[in-house]
């Protein structure tokens, strides 16, 4: 009995058969089976791809969004100095604060931007209202420098907000007294891009990321003392564009860096990163926790990426918006599974975490003559505490200083 080796395309077959007929029959049988298996595999892949497209189309039809309120600058001509860099809802869901290049921290009552009766109206029937910042905001605090970041301080009953500015200073403001109560200047005058506070274990730890390539970690109870830790993710001291502690109370802090990488550190030991997330082709401008196991990053390569924090792998890449040079904002509605970001095309984009393409895109209408031809969405923020699970709200800020509030409502299955 001889042993024969037969090749059919990329398939190799070892046969201990006798005679040419046996070998021919065996080869032909395997060939037919192989072709059938390949055809079945291709059909299955096409079927799955069709199902994915169908599911994604359902996601596009799942939400209706409508403009609720627009707040414009008091002057008739908006300019680059009006750019809104940051928008933040407070933990109690009563207020919104904004900051930007106008050097003002503005505080708005949520009910002045989203009237309570709107929840009983179909989104498609909402008539938007036009306000100006002077009449819409409760008050504003003048800051000494342009503002890049704002964050509400946990455990302060929506009374204290921290800021980072272009002069490299971190300041905390008592909003009731409208005065600064805490100040740090640890970055040598280099611009602070981002500030945040830890929610882990009732700690009073804050952090700031700067152009100097470091994240400074400090305890707000220890005034004007040395930092708790200094983290430098990049050996070349690439600027740190964003820092965010796990808002769900975990012990991790995430960093977005100009070296094209994102990092996570454990607040209990910041000697080295827990994970390094590789995949962006340009600066990582934002990082946002999605839940305890996933994180979203934004880069000036025009991509958002959803990461598996357990293994550092990319789960999904989101494309559609334009972002190659500016901060355009990133926000994740954690309980709703939606991601919002701005675009240099002056549009706001909403992605469903499950799909790579946007489910909703809206261009921001120009409400007044602009002193700058280059207009873009510069900040976005989801309302985390929705009254109903089928309702949501996203607020956008523009380079022209306009603030816009969009309400979303999930369609009933019969309308899907």
Automatic annotation (TrEMBL):
GO BP annotation list: flower development; regulation of protein-containing complex assembly; response to UV-B
Record field: transmembrane: none
Gene Ontology cellular component annotations, sorted alphabetically: cytosol; nucleus
A Pfam family assignment: WD40
Compartments where located: Cytoplasm, Cytosol; Nucleus
WD repeats: from-to residues: 277-317
InterPro entries according to UniProt: RUP1/2, WD40/YVTN_repeat-like_dom_sf, WD40_repeat_CS, WD40_repeat_dom_sf, WD40_rpt
Source organism, top-level taxon: Eukaryota
Coarse class of the protein's main subcellular location: cytoplasm
Keyword terms of this UniProt record: Cytoplasm, Flowering, Nucleus, Repeat, WD repeat
PANTHER family per UniProt: WD REPEAT-CONTAINING PROTEIN RUP1
Stated name of the protein: Uncharacterized protein
Organism: Kingdonia uniflora
Lineage, broadest ranks: Eukaryota, Viridiplantae, Streptophyta, Embryophyta, Tracheophyta
